[in-house]
Write a structure and sequence with these properties.
Helices cover 73% and strands 0% of the residues. The longest helix has 35 residues. The chain has 162 residues and is mostly helical.
Length: 162
Amino acid sequence: MKKIIITTLLLLATVNTVFAQEIYTEVKKMAQEKVDDPNSAPIVKNINKFKVDALNYMAMKMREQMPDSSAVLLDNMAISLHNFINNYTRDLVSCSQQPAAYQTKVISAYMDASYSNPLFNDSDEEVTLAYFIDGKSVTRFSLDTDWRRAILAAEAAMKKLK
């Protein structure tokens, strides 16, 4: 009986790991497809280019700084990044009829949520803040972000704005 339970638990753990790797890969694949699609609007390409770069950055830094971390962490970060960007674009669209000052506050809330929640504390600001300091980028966020915490911070900031 113990062998059956242990075998079942090991099988479930393996399935969860594979599933996690598939989610990261799928989020990255979907974003890359939009970047490569010649019919994608420039703003869509810009947003998805950020996603691809952020996902690549996370995977690279996790291999360097957290070699023992599980695929589940990368999976959670990929999902959180995807949700963060979706929430950001939703909030930008919903405030498009608001005064420019309010729109600036929404953008600043998301920028601050990203910047204030680093995951790796990477000192290479030329890389990590490339999008953040680029005034032309729609996604002015830090690549070094704990996206799980950033979502919570952005949600809290948006509640204060409303």
